[in-house]
Amino acid sequence: MKYTEVESCRVCGGNDFSDRLDLGEQPPANAFSMTPFEIPKLPLRLMQCGDCGLVQIGHVADCSELFSRYSFLTSSSSRMAAHFASLMQQATSRHVPYGGLVVEIGSNDGTALASITRRDVRKLGVDPAQNIAAVARERGIETRVEFFCEESAGAIIREHGQASLIVACNVLGHIHEVSSVIAGVDLLLTPGGAFVFEVPYVCEMVTNTEFDTIYHEHLSYFGIGPLARLLEKHGLRLSKIEPQDVHGGTIRCTATRNGNACDLSTWIQREREMDWSGFASRSNGIRHNLHEWLVDLADEGMTVCGYGAPAKGTVMLNYCGIGEDLLPFVVDSTPLKQSSRVPGTGQLILSPDAITGMPLDAILILAWNHAGEIAAKEPGRSFATPQQFE
Ligand code: DWN
Ligand code: ZN
Question: Which among 76, 132, 218 is the best mutation to test ligand 1's pocket, defined by most ligand atoms within 8 Å of the CB?
Fold first, then answer.
């Protein structure tokens, strides 16, 4: 897979970078396949811009290879489907007049847009994954198969007019030319419109030692400081910041042209105080202790499997050196992933049905952000999550 080294910060253009965590050569986290050991590995190194504070990885993989055939479905979690339905209900009632247009960037399988029940609201999805967009279209969500940018914003305006609400959840961090996306948002948004987006919050990643959320799809790990700087370049200001308890700690931001800008000082102070040396040592603690736990289980002839084949699970298994000898297989509810194998470590991905009635001494939940939803499906089982090995 082709990749380039980051030479300047995508938010401020600076080139004064400090390394934060080097995860070594890793396969793309969503490259599930039948030939898991043939997947090319790329450098995966987290660094931070000394000028604007943006945390980012040091190499950009070819996004058409990463996203043109995708395997993650928003609908794979009922809790997340409900979460995005609540976002859409709140944002449309706050920002969308009668007959207004809502555009979602990174609309995936259309789950969020489909949750809008107001019949007057016009909806449009934008997503680069042909296979996932087909799922959205089958459920009646008009979807443009492309990477959103300033040019596509112009095309949307010609066809649909401007949007009163633009939504982007877990998308901005995936985009190298993110400034072009915000320029497109500025173009597409009506004068009084709102841009509502969610991104994992970098301080939560550091505090909760979520190193497994570092992978090649995630180019930027946003703090409020860099976000505000990125938005202000395009005449947008943060008017609301709402922490969300999903995906390991996320922030829901509302950006408008003329809303009352919120006070960012407490957020920026917290970002300045991030404990990076503690993050690196805790990450290596999990790496060592989780591996040792699985070695002990294997030595005692105990049976264990993984639950969930999330992108973060690929990082966890590869970074901790956990092969099939220590974790024989994983189960996952996503049909697109079943029968394929985890890139780099080779675990076969089976349907959760495969463990019905199967005696297991432990289940390692790799999709730890869904631990509650998963545990409820397997009552009486003994679960572990990576964070408990810190
Ligand atoms: O940014 C991204 C985040 C938001 O979502 C994308 N890069 C891709 C994706 O990352 P992920 O794959 O780490 O996301 P999840 O939501 O943690 O993946 C959960 C996985 O677990 C899915 O493959 C579905 C599976 N699952 C399951 O098998 N049974 C999930 C639930 C809730 C279940 O009950
Ligand atoms: Zn910068």
Answer: 76
* Three-state DSSP string of the chain: CCEEECCCCCCCCCCCEEEEEEEEEECCCCCCECCCCCCCCEEEEEEEECCCCCEEECEEECHHHHHCCCCCCHHHCHHHHHHHHHHHHHHHHHHCCCCCEEEEECCCCCHHHHCCCCCCCEEEEECCCHHHHHHHHHCCCCEECCCCCHHHHHHHHHHHCCEEEEEEECCHHHCCCHHHHHHHHHHHEEEEEEEEEEEECHHHHHHCCCHHHCCCCCCEECCHHHHHHHHHCCCCEEEEEEEECCCCCEEEEEEECCCCCCCCHHHHHHHHCCCHHHHHHHHHHHHHHHHHHHHHHHHCCCCEEEECCCHHHHHHHHHCCCCCCCCCEEECCCCCCCCCECCCCCCEEECHHHHCCCCCCEEEECCHHHHHHHHCCCCCCCEECHHHHC
Q: What is the mean pLDDT of each run of 10 residues along the chain (390 residues)?
A: 93 97 96 94 97 97 76 83 96 98 97 97 96 94 96 97 98 95 98 97 98 97 98 96 96 92 95 96 98 98 97 98 98 95 98 97 97 95 96
Give residue 369 CA to ligand 1 midpoint distance, Å: 8
210 lines ligand 1 (CB under 6 A): no
| Ligand closest to the CA atom of residue 222 | 2
Nearest-ligand number for the alpha carbon of 369: 1
pTM for the model stands at 0.95
